[in-house]
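Researcher: Structure prediction, please.
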Amino acid sequence: PEGSFPAFSWGRDYTFHFTNPDRCLAGTPPENCWNDATHPDGIFRSVKESINVFFYPHLDFVSRRLREVPAAAPAPACAPEERAGAVVLAAAGKLYQIGGVDAKDRISKEVRVYDVAAGTWQAGPDLPVAVTGAQGAVVGEKLYVAGGFTGRRRRRLSGAVQVFDLETGAWHEHDHPLPEPVAEGTATAVGESIYVVSGRRAASRRGRFELSDAVQILDTKSGGWRAGAPASMPAAGASAVAVGPTIYVCGGLDDRGDVSSRTLVYEVASDQWALGPDLHRPAYQATIGRLGDAVKLAGGRGEAGGPPVETVQELLFDRDETGALAPGEWRPALPQAVASADSGAAVLGGTLYVVGGRVRASAVDDAGSPSALVQAFHPQSGWHTCPGTPAFTADTVLNDAGLTQGPKPLAPGARALLIGYHLGASPEEVTITVGGKKAPIIAMGPQVPPEGGDQRIVFQVPESVEAGTAEIELERQGAERQAPPVTVEILPASPGLYFYSFGETREETFLDRGPALACNEDGTLNFADQAAAPDQTVVLLATGLRCADPADLDVWITRANNTGRRKATVLGIKPQEGVVGADQLIVKLPDGGIQFSNNVTVRCQYKHDKESVDSNRVVISIRKEAKRPEKPWPCQYGFVFVFPELLAPAE
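Model: Predicted structure follows.
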């Protein structure tokens, strides 16, 4: 049958097992579309038999053309100070980070200049008026910064148009301010004109703001403003980019307070609006840039008040029969290294630079904190961050077993996985503390690939850390600047169930309901060729249960088609010998009261203060009879695929 298959596993002597397909392609003969009724144990065959079995490759194509990859792409340097809400513009081989708010949420008039060739930052002349959330564009040898929030607590709007002349190296205020002051709008240049689109304007009530549908056009040659056709769907925090004589305005926060997935298309020549292709995902406070025949929309927030996301979307353009660039559909692209929102971005030398913005420093605060991080996207080699500073966020400190599908809080004694960039060359030069207490480092991997890849550290949360919130700090010897601490929630227990992730940490469809690391009651490894039977005992490898009372745990067993849920009996919890921070969750499977297919889903639930904390979902194998091959695999065989410290060092 041709269909969509969930998990599979291999056995001895070339045997393999698939669970039944979730669905079959249209036109598949019924006898070829296996299901739980006709094949309760799934597809269980030997490839030595004359059967037509093959694997489709699991590939995500992110480029239409092949290019030679350079040996090493230059890594950017971090900005001198944390900033969010700044305007970032590129001119004459340099990036200009203008205004914004600092780490203490104060509006700044400072300008920082990054010389890309030299890899150095220096201070530029201050703005005449401190602003954040302003709109900016470059025309010729001048940088234009229009509007923005000003004053304490961002309660006032600035109408000033501040101009930096590259020849004189000085700022001045333009003779003609914005006709309608706005902030959190978006701007781009076409020819010698700057288009300021939408944003927030002053409402009738003092200190309040509302959305503006204004399109304000500055002719930089004559110095005058004129009005364009009003935006058909006004928004705040949208992102605009020009492709030839056409402006694309993407996403933003609409008048209902929802994050939009709309792309509005403004034709400069006709002064008309139209709808373009919808974004792959809604985006607000994202950054945008054009790289060749592709537009990249990076980061932002996926929902109002939500945390920054690492999502990157791209819109590819082709030439139509007239030679004009025509857009295709938005599609997902390579994610950012670090999720950010309210950043500034500019394209320089064929590279998209995302500068500063807010990153999630606390698991209990979605707004995020201003960052000094610089992320550079090279089309040939992907995302790179500044090597002088370790980089990670609260969202990249995970339950080591559940990963992104597990519970967000950590627990005393649990294994945790920290994913970041430029964390260090060896455990000897890295120190991690949780709540001020040193955390044992269990395993540490290299950065893969060496330029631009992420790095992973497995550590144990100290058992003496108390429930509540705790700061996690990572200190790398020799770093130019240490990563800011992040705050995580600590619960008495937070269950994660181990499974074979094969190094994957992001892809939800792969991580959800992965094959569990579990031991049968006879000490064999649980998988399709060595299934358990109803009413037998199974040991699930877990973490985050060191301080849990078994009475506070529920373990649920569900058939692969989400029917027939039954509760297993929790017999006990004990530390796994030889594996720091890992726990044995010992359960007795339900009896044969429901018909089990070969693979079933398991989830652990910790009941805490009238609420519950759920583990990730994993899959174990249960058959009517617990048959074994002639030479069964012992349970310890599976450990080396899950616990990196058990692997023999490479010679």
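Model: Confidence is low (pLDDT under 50) at residues 1-8, 47-62.
Researcher: Thanks, that helps.
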